[in-house]
Amino acid sequence: MKLKFKNSIIFFIVILILSCGGNKELDEEMTPPKEKAKEIINVAPSIPTLIYPSNELFCIENELEFSWTASTDSDGDSISYKIQIAEDEQFNNVVVEELRSVNEIIVPLEKGKTFYWRILAIDNQDNSSGFTPTWNFYTE
Description:
Blueprint: H1 2-21, H2 24-30, E1 50-52, E2 57-59, E3 63-68, E4 79-86, E5 94-100, E6 104-108, E7 114-123, E8 135-139
Parallel strand pairs: 2-8
Antiparallel strand pairs: 1-3, 3-6, 4-5, 4-7, 7-8
């Protein structure tokens, strides 16, 4: 009888320990969901503004210094600029496409032609602004 009583007490203690020890997976399932942490969304930089050559400018020289305003990035990311210069307004015939970390570039172009240009700002998280409006100019 002592043995049965002793075994019963041991059995009861084991059951008690197991039931109080908890099951981590079960505890996580039974725990009400906590408020989800806000997702951090990286914002694209602002669209730069074209400065020079101005729209519909007749250029005396064919080596031009293109310039535009710097973009801002509310996340503080570094910004690069993609400049595109094309012979057509749809940018099917791009003659220059470069990525720059500064907001100016000197480009020699063919004389006696109409060119179109635009800029796109890209942050170091690969978020990009929209393109600037397209401007055109003429080389003599």
